[in-house]
Design a protein that fits this description.
Distance between the termini: 38 Å
Structural class: alpha/beta
Largest sheet: 6 strands, mixed
Order of helices and strands: EEEHEHEHHHEHEHEEHEHEEHEH
Radius of gyration: 23 Å
CATH topology of the largest domain: Rossmann fold
Number of helices: 11
CATH superfamily of the largest domain: P-loop containing nucleotide triphosphate hydrolases
Number of domains: 2
Low-confidence stretches: none
Length: 313
């Protein structure tokens, strides 16, 4: 990874009418780096990506891809590959035919097209499906071909918008391997995602946006340690659903229900010892845990913390 960024964003500002959606964002992304852009809906992620792709002019600040403004310079936009959230492929065409088509649309010359197709097939691990019509592929394979279509012209910067939507765990792992392959070839990868598990395991750095501002940036594990210190996450899965009195007891233990699941969790610096004491207290109160686990906090915990800051602001 070189020290010179391929992407620079300086004090990016944008507003629609009187509504400010970007409020002075700085960002730098280097070749051979994976950066995950995180934040709740309305944080400004889509607007920032639109500006990076040259699709809108900032109200203030600057963006440069390899030193050139993507809004005014076609050669800067040519260095970019975009993988949209929606599958942008021709269902009746095979994988190879799709790659050939998108290669031509990206300006790949006829002599180089065959090599570019083979490279995309190898990097996305889709060689075994090259003659299969896209409409017959699984969601995971379609995602990989979608990436292949975006790299036919060998972009220096690849942007992926929610790449794991609609795919299962095995397909997610295959996608992660594809993204790492591209990173290892020197491509800078910017991922916009709500998949915090993917971001935590894949990204070299993450950045959190909130209300148009970047409020946090760094390596995932370093940010988690900075936010939570020695605290560990304790997860409790009860054998039976608690009644209202049981829910009050769980809340009194500092446990919060995870969505609509039967899983409850809390952060505690006591780790395994605290989990053992909690198990004893719950059983004594008539609540039988099916399982109690202890793990390090994740980006999900950090995201929840950022959301709490947002509500309190």
């Amino acid at each position: 990874m070189t020290d010179r960024p391929i992407l620079n964003v300086w004090r990016a500002e944008h507003q629609y009418g009187t509504r400010k959606v970007l409020r002075g964002i700085d960002l730098a992304l280097r070749p051979g780096e994976i950066y995950a852009l995180l934040g709740p809906n309305g944080a400004g992620k889509s607007t920032l990506v639109g500006a990076i792709c040259g699709r809108l002019k900032l109200s203030g600040g600057e963006i440069a891809i390899d030193g050139k403004n993507p809004f005014t310079n076609a050669s800067a936009r040519a260095l970019l590959g975009l993988v949209p959230q929606e599958i942008a492929l021709y269902g009746h065409l095979t994988v190879r035919e799709n790659l050939e088509t998108f290669g031509r649309l990206a300006g790949v010359k006829a002599k180089a097209l065959r090599e570019a197709v083979q490279r995309a097939l190898l990097l996305t691990r889709t060689v075994d499906r090259e003659h299969v019509p896209v409409k017959h592929l699984s969601g995971g394979y379609r995602r990989r071909v979608n990436i292949g279509a975006a790299i036919m012209h060998r972009p220096a910067l690849l942007i992926l918008d929610e790449p794991t939507v609609g795919v299962d765990q095995d397909a997610r792992e295959a996608l992660d391997a594809v993204i790492r392959n591209l990173r290892d070839t020197g491509v800078a990868v910017l991922i916009v995602t709500h998949d915090l598990e993917q971001a935590g395991g894949l990204a070299d750095r993450v950045g959190f946006l909130r209300e148009g501002r970047k409020i946090m940036e760094g390596a995932p594990r370093a940010l988690i340690e900075q936010a939570f210190g020695q605290e560990m996450e304790i997860l409790v899965h009860l054998t039976l659903e608690p009644d209202s009195a049981g829910e009050i007891l769980m809340a009194g233990e500092g446990l919060e229900r995870q969505g609509r699941t039967s899983l409850w969790s809390k952060l505690d610096p006591g780790g395994y010892a605290a989990a053992g004491r909690l198990d004893t207290r719950l059983r004594k109160a008539g609540l039988e845990p099916r399982e109690i686990r202890v793990r390090q906090p994740s980006l999900q915990n950090l995201f929840a913390l950022v959301a709490d800051w947002s509500r309190a602001a």
